[in-house]
Backbone:
């Protein structure tokens, strides 16, 4: 499990927490990314994140790299909870992390969604909008408390 906290972005819909149970995710402008950010200063696929036992491996797909805790990183680097990432005009930090060996059934659901999309691409848009709606409802619920 990985929780990212988006604190700044021109794409206000991304602000707040993002929780995933996948072992690997892509961040970028493209709808094929797991986390889609409408920030003109980032690539279609800007970062790939892989959960490892040693920490959170972040790899840049941009030749200019990215900033971690205000230091420029080219290529990849292991990160930990509390580390802050800057790409384009978007900023997020790693809020919570659970190494892959402790994943639960939610990972299996994410895997099955991914397999469904591979079999029939028309479901990608359905799952994308469902996820956005659920995140929106979750955010509204947390604001009401």
Residues:
């Amino acid at each position: 499990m990985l929780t990212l906290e988006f604190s700044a972005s021109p794409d206000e819909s991304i602000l707040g927490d993002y929780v995933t149970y996948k072992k690997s995710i892509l961040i970028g402008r493209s709808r094929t990314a797991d986390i889609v950010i409408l920030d003109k200063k980032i690539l279609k696929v800007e970062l790939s994140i892989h959960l490892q036992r040693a920490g959170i491996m972040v790899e840049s797909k941009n030749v200019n790299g990215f900033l971690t805790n205000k230091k420029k990183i080219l290529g990849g680097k292991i990160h930990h909870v509390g580390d802050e990432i800057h790409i384009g005009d978007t900023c997020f930090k790693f809020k919570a992390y659970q190494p892959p060996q402790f994943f639960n059934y939610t990972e299996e659901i994410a895997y099955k969604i991914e397999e469904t999309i591979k079999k029939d691409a028309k479901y990608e848009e359905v799952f994308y909008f469902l996820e956005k709606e659920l995140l929106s409802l979750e955010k509204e619920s947390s604001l009401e408390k």
Q: What stands out?
A: The helical segments are 105-119, 122-144. The chain has a mean pLDDT of 88. The radius of gyration is 15 Å.
